[in-house]
């Protein structure tokens, strides 16, 4: 399907792509550095759904208003997305998000909870605070972070030292090496990490929603994932019913593709029915 652009009166715009022609709407948010076609693999498995895949800000044609403040906050997103839903004549919808897209799904859920039918979060960012993320965006460190993104030689030297001492997980170093080789990706990391720091939904609000609403919210993780590790979410997951969580034997990359049968099952069947959950330990 061709790429479309929605333009808002504020000057903001959203790049999006639709897949399928079903009468149910599934709005999808991709991960860092990905495209709207990240969810194209689901089209043939979800014949009852129309997938609306939205590109995150700072990716491709999606951009915030030129008058927007540095940090993205939920009210800004709510105003833009309300008009987007109206433009596409979408009333009720489900949400599917992967990695960084989890922050957009949580902000959307917070703003339009009465219109959301189901939420599936795959290795979602924004559920718990990550030390590296909080450190890089702290006021005293943010200028140094910006310097490192502009001077990668010193950044990778520092990363090498951290890996050698065992402080940095080798998988994280490999991810950083892969994602930060180009100046474009380094700029993208800086803008998204700093702009999205407070974007999403608080964990307290999310837990209250899970326990007070009949709205199905499912969390999918990979046992081999070192980016959004399930182990880092144990305290959070211990506070929700077990049948909300699925831990699959995969890594971070292509987790959506690997979880396709489960996503299909969740959207087509009774999500409250008991499931066998593989151990994440």
Model description:
It contains 11 helices and 8 strands. It has about 280 residues and is an alpha/beta fold. It folds into 2 domains: about 5-125 and about 200-270, Rossmann fold (3-Layer(aba) Sandwich); about 130-195, no CATH class. Strands 1-2-4-3-5-6-7-8 form an 8-stranded mixed beta sheet, with helices on both faces. Strand 5 (about 95-100), helix 2 (about 100-110) and strand 6 form a beta-alpha-beta unit. It is globular and about 55 Å long. Mean pLDDT is about 85; it is low at about 130-140 and about 270-280.
List keywords for this structure.
single chain; 281 residues; alpha/beta; 2 domains; 11 helices; globular; AB_hydrolase_1
Reconstruct the topology from this structure.
Layout: E1 4-7, E2 13-19, E3 24-29, E4 49-54, H1 74-87, E5 93-98, H2 101-112, E6 116-122, H3 131-136, H4 139-150, H5 152-164, H6 170-179, H7 183-195, H8 203-212, E7 217-222, H9 234-237, E8 245-248, H10 255-258, H11 260-268
Parallel strand pairs: 3-4, 3-5, 5-6, 6-7, 7-8
Antiparallel strand pairs: 1-2, 2-4
Number of strands: 8
Secondary-structure element order, N to C: EEEEHEHEHHHHHHEHEHH
Assess the beta-strand content as a share of residues: 15-25%
Biggest beta-sheet profile: 8 strands, mixed
The averaged pLDDT comes out at 84
The tally of domains stands at 2
**Which geometry do the CA atoms define?**
globular
- The gyration radius over C-alpha positions equals 19 Å
Strand order of the largest sheet: 1-2-4-3-5-6-7-8
Q: Give the distance, in angstroms, between the N- and C-terminal Cα atoms.
A: 40 Å
Question: What is the helical fraction, as a range of percent?
Answer: 25-40%
Full CATH superfamily name of the largest domain: Alpha/Beta hydrolase fold, catalytic domain
User: Which secondary-structure class do the elements indicate?
Assistant: alpha/beta
Q: Catalogue the unreliable spans.
A: 131-138, 270-281
CATH architecture of the largest domain: 3-Layer(aba) Sandwich
* Quaternary: single chain
Task: Tell me the CATH topology of the largest domain.
Answer: Rossmann fold
Helical segment count = 11
Which CATH class of the largest domain?
Alpha Beta
Protein name: Pimeloyl-ACP methyl ester carboxylesterase
Pfam families: Abhydrolase_1
Domain AB hydrolase-1: 25-255
């Amino acid at each position: 399907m061709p790429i479309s652009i929605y333009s808002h009166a504020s000057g903001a715009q959203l790049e999006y792509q639709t897949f399928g022609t079903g009468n149910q709407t599934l709005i999808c948010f991709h991960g860092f550095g990905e495209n709207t076609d990240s969810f194209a693999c689901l089209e043939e498995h979800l014949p009852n759904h129309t997938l609306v895949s939205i590109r995150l800000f700072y990716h491709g044609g999606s951009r915030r208003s030129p008058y927007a403040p540095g940090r993205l906050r939920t009210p800004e997103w709510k105003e833009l997305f309300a008009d987007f839903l109206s433009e596409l004549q979408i009333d009720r919808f489900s949400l599917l998000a992967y990695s960084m897209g989890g922050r957009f799904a949580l902000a959307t859920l917070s703003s339009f909870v009465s219109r959301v039918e189901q939420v599936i979060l795959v290795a979602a960012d924004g559920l718990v605070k990550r030390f590296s993320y909080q450190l890089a965006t702290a006021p005293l460190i943010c200028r140094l972070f910006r310097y490192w993104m502009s001077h990668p030689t010193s950044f990778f030297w520092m990363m090498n030292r951290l890996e050698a001492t065992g402080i940095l997980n080798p998988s994280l170093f490999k991810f950083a090496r892969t994602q930060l080789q180009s100046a474009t990706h380094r700029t993208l990391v800086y803008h998204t990490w700093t702009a999205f720091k407070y974007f999403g939904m608080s964990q307290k609000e999310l837990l209250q929603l899970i326990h007070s609403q009949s709205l199905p919210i499912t969390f999918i993780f990979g046992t081999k994932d070192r980016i959004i590790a399930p182990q880092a979410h144990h305290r959070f997951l211990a506070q929700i019913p077990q049948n909300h969580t699925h831990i699959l034997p995969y890594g971070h990359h292509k987790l959506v593709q690997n979880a396709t049968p489960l996503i299909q099952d969740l959207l087509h069947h009774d999500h409250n029915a008991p499931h066998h959950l593989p151990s994440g330990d």
